[in-house]
Design goal:
Elements: H1 7-14, H2 17-34, E1 41-45, E2 49-55, E3 64-69, E4 72-79, H3 83-86, E5 98-105, E6 115-119, E7 122-128
Antiparallel strand pairs: 1-2, 2-7, 3-4, 4-5, 6-7
Length: about 140
């Protein structure tokens, strides 16, 4: 067991010094294409409701879609550049068009009384709770 080396440490030891920075320069633009964009999301149980907050800096209100479907709350973002930014002559650019979806299952979420507020790059969603109905029926065996 002591001879086992984590994969990331093993792969770092295989690299050679003079070519690391050179290889990283060419890998960086492709890495942004292969990784899924994401955002931070917190879910708080505040007694009578759930409070879900998502950090979405640089995103416009029109680019956000919030949906509650059978207890699953989904927050989707489709961020697109403006034409003004596309006209610039970038040598290297890490920002651009991206989409991301995060979701959480809230088993006792009510569909009525939902509110959402987007202020200062933070989306806050209030999801009221409902009394959970028993979906389990006990059957006696004869």
């Amino acid at each position: 067991m002591a001879s086992m080396v984590p994969y990331d440490r093993f792969s770092r030891s295989l690299r050679t010094w003079p070519f690391d920075a050179f290889d990283g320069f060419f890998d960086a633009p492709l890495a942004t294409l292969s990784k899924d964009a994401s955002f931070k999301m917190d879910v708080e149980d505040a007694g009578e409701k759930y409070v879900v907050s998502a950090e979405l800096p640089g995103v416009k209100r029109e680019e956000i879609d919030v949906e509650l479907n059978e207890g699953r709350l989904s927050v989707s973002v489709e961020h697109k550049e403006t034409e003004e930014q596309k006209g610039k002559n970038y040598l290297y650019k890490e920002t651009g068009e991206w989409t991301a979806t995060r979701g959480v299952y809230l088993k006792d979420a009510a569909t009525a009384g939902l509110t959402a507020k987007f202020d200062g790059g933070v989306l806050t969603i209030n999801v009221p709770k409902q009394d959970q109905k028993a979906n389990v029926t006990k059957i006696s065996i004869d």
